[in-house]
């Protein structure tokens, strides 16, 4: 089943946590963990799951085959280099899926062309032959010119045209080393769509790495340029500085739909759960201040912020914690917290205080907060019992 070209305002989400994400040194997942993550991705409405690289190992082959058999909604994709053996192995694994896809790639930039030592013409022939071979096996074929953003424009346009003519239904433009900038990312896709014959009949995808911290911005810019598939991973897991983070593009499209008028099919309320599972099974903890899923993404400590939050959450939050599957905002009690936050916390803990009593507790609380990074509920309860004993 070929993935149809999405409606103009829809962006397909292609998750590669189990392939590019798992390629992060040390992020290896067990078979059972991969099946669990694939199931969560399928349930949250991801359109395409890149489940692995079937020729890489027996384990990868088994995981991709099993995920293909179990998936209920998503297209299941496997990765293959530009040779028949890889492509055949990939097809053997994905063919069980309700909707299978073969993703084949070759490095097209001067640096990458030097590795297999192919001339430009030889590589062009290889692309034609391998994409045609994949298309004879499967009617849903994705082709990627690896390191596209450092490939000469004329050659990139030429090989993209060859891949389309050979039957590719999705052309993915990888920024393999996270080198591009948003304005270039948009222009490149726009120009490919405008100038390559047949480009308007296929889906363009964007696949960005985060070496300069621009992966999400580059992916969204590519969508502005006409890409209709974003490749991403949960928590931005991936080689080196990682890939575009799924949670960031999904929430950016949701929260700023006024300026980014595209939508996805992803149920954002499932984000937090899958983020935690991926962090646990990959062994890669999420940094505290990571956008959307970091421990502090919905936490407030400063007095001004806490006071504002208590009056109106929109003062300091552009999305609701429930939008990403959290139950509530967390007002972290620490040395920057003010009286209003302490009063509210005490009320939650069952203490109603007069202004004078509050002032007394507040002084003690500040002294404690100066010694401790974070003041927990238990600390506040003991502060209250000390106050009662002394009083
Ligand atoms: O970053 C990259 O170029 C890749 C390709 C295999 C698509 O992951
Ligand atoms: Zn990649």
UniProtKB/TrEMBL annotation:
Please tell me where Mn(2+) binds in this chain: 20, 207, 209, 243
Pathway per its UniProt entry is: Amino-acid biosynthesis; L-leucine biosynthesis; L-leucine from 3-methyl-2-oxobutanoate: step 1/4
An annotated Gene Ontology molecular function: 2-isopropylmalate synthase activity
Q: What class of enzyme is it?
A: transferase
| The species this protein was found in | Pacificitalea manganoxidans
Q: Name the chemical reaction catalysed here.
A: 3-methyl-2-oxobutanoate + acetyl-CoA + H2O = (2S)-2-isopropylmalate + CoA + H(+)
Pyruvate carboxyltransferase domain boundaries: 11-272
The alphabetical list of record keywords is: Amino-acid biosynthesis, Branched-chain amino acid biosynthesis, Cytoplasm, Leucine biosynthesis, Manganese, Metal-binding, Transferase
Q: Which cofactor does it need?
A: Mn(2+)
Manganese found in the keyword field = yes
Name of the protein in its database record: 2-isopropylmalate synthase
Enzyme Commission (EC) number: 2.3.3.13
| Job description of the protein | Catalyzes the condensation of the acetyl group of acetyl-CoA with 3-methyl-2-oxobutanoate (2-ketoisovalerate) to form 3-carboxy-3-hydroxy-4-methylpentanoate (2-isopropylmalate).
Outline the subunit composition: Homodimer.
Indicate yes or no for the key word Transferase: yes
GO cellular component labels = cytosol
- Mention one GO biological process in which this protein takes part, according to its record: L-leucine biosynthetic process
- Record family assignment: Belongs to the alpha-IPM synthase/homocitrate synthase family. LeuA type 1 subfamily.
